[in-house]
Amino acid sequence: QVQLVESGGGLVQAGGSLRLSCVASRVTFALFRSVTLTWYRQAPGKERELVASITDSGSEYYADFVKGRFTISRDNKRYTVYLQMNNLDPEDTGIYSCKMGKIWGQGTQVTVSS
């Protein structure tokens, strides 16, 4: 079964940056490069929300609350999707998870201190 493993979370001060990675395993190259990859986040006590996605052709979509601050990218040869997060705000605190099709990763914690 396909597995997704996120990394790169941590504690950072407001205004700082983090780069999240999500690596897929047990998936063929042909499949990985053909799917849309998405980052979600869930803040404490809140619903999970879509942060950004990237299609197989490289088209990017961002939620309004991260436009201009976050950048999603993918490296198909590394079976990896990235989320570069700049100018972080305490409101960005939460568990960030990647999704491929119906498969979810376990998430990585991002905590932004004020």
Strand content: over 45%
Number of DSSP strand runs: 11
Radius of gyration: 13 Å
Structural class: mainly beta
Estimated helix fraction: under 10%
Overall morphology: globular
Helical segment tally? 1
Poorly predicted runs are none
Major sheet attributes: 7 strands, mixed
Give helix and strand order, one letter per element, not per position.
Answer: EEEHEEEEEEEE
Instruction: Give the distance, in angstroms, between the N- and C-terminal Cα atoms.
Output: 40 Å
Report the average pLDDT across residues. Answer: 97
Structural key phrases:
single chain; 114 residues; mainly beta; 7-stranded mixed beta sheet
Can you describe what's shown?
The chain is mainly beta. It is 5% helix and 52% strand. It has one helix and eleven strands; from the N terminus they run E-E-E-H-E-E-E-E-E-E-E-E. The protein has one helix spanning 29-34; strands at residues 3-7, 10-13, 18-25, 37-42, 49-54, 60-62, 70-75, 80-85, 94-100, 103-104, 108-113. A hairpin with a 4-residue loop joins strand 7 and strand 8. It is globular. The mean pLDDT is 97.
Write a compact overview of the structure shown:
With 114 residues, the chain is mostly beta strands. The chain has one helix spanning 29-34, and strands at residues 3-7, 10-13, 18-25, 37-42, 49-54, 60-62, 70-75, 80-85, 94-100, 103-104, 108-113.
Please give the structural blueprint.
Blueprint: E1 3-7, E2 10-13, E3 18-25, H1 29-34, E4 37-42, E5 49-54, E6 60-62, E7 70-75, E8 80-85, E9 94-100, E10 103-104, E11 108-113
Parallel strand pairs: 2-11
Antiparallel strand pairs: 1-3, 3-8, 4-5, 4-9, 5-6, 7-8, 9-10, 9-11
